[in-house]
Design brief:
There is one protein chain. The protein is mainly α. The protein has a domain at 25-117: 434 Repressor (Amino-terminal Domain) (Orthogonal Bundle), CATH 1.10.260.40. Strands 1-2 form a two-stranded antiparallel ribbon. Residues 1-8 have low confidence and may be disordered. The protein is globular, with a radius of gyration of 22 Å. It is built from seven helices and two strands; from the N terminus they run ββααααααα. Helix content is 54%, strand content 9%.
C-alpha cells in the first residue's frame, strides 16, 4: 500500500514532476488491509465486531481512523477472523509490485487462494528453458 508524493526539486520549471512511492504509515496500512479483507470476504463489520468482542460502532470508528490506538491482541483477533496471522496484517513488503501481489493474495477467499497457488506452481514448473535446436549441419 503506497501513496505517492511529488518530488519538487526541479531545475527546469517545464520539467514534469517525479512521482516517488512512499509507504503509508503502518496504522493506515493496517486499516486499509482490514477494509480490503472485509470487502473481499464479505465479512460485515457487525460480524467482525462480534468475533473480536467489540461492537460494530467501534469497528466502524477504527476503520475510519477515529480510534487512535489499538492493542496487539485485538489486531491478532482481527487477523484470525480472516484466517491470517498478525504478521500478515502488519507486514509491508518494500517492493510496490510485491506489496500489491501480497495484498491481492490476502484479499482472496481460501478457495481462490488454492486455485491461484496451483496456477503459480504450474507456471513455475513449466518455466523450463527452451531447448536449442541442433542440427548436424553446422
Amino acid at each position: 500500500m503506497y501513496m505517492y508524493f511529488v518530488y519538487t526539486a526541479r531545475t527546469d520549471p517545464m520539467e514534469l514532476p517525479i512521482l516517488i512511492p512512499m509507504a503509508l504509515p503502518l496504522e493506515e496500512q493496517v486499516r486499509a488491509r482490514i477494509k480490503a479483507w472485509v470487502t473481499s470476504t464479505e465479512v460485515t463489520q457487525a460480524t467482525l465486531a462480534m468475533r473480536i468482542g467489540r461492537d460494530q460502532v467501534w469497528v466502524s470508528r477504527y476503520l475510519n481512523g477515529k480510534v487512535e490506538s489499538i492493542d496487539l491482541d485485538t489486531l491478532q483477533k482481527i487477523a484470525a477472523v480472516f484466517e491470517h496471522s498478525l504478521h500478515a496484517l502488519l507486514e509491508a513488503p518494500a517492493d510496490p509490485a510485491e506489496a500489491q501481489l501480497v495484498e491481492d493474495w490476502r484479499s482472496l477467499r481460501p478457495k481462490s487462494r488454492a486455485i491461484l497457488s496451483a496456477l503459480a506452481t504450474d507456471m513455475r514448473r513449466s518455466r523450463t528453458p527452451p531447448r536449442s535446436r541442433r542440427s548436424g549441419h553446422e
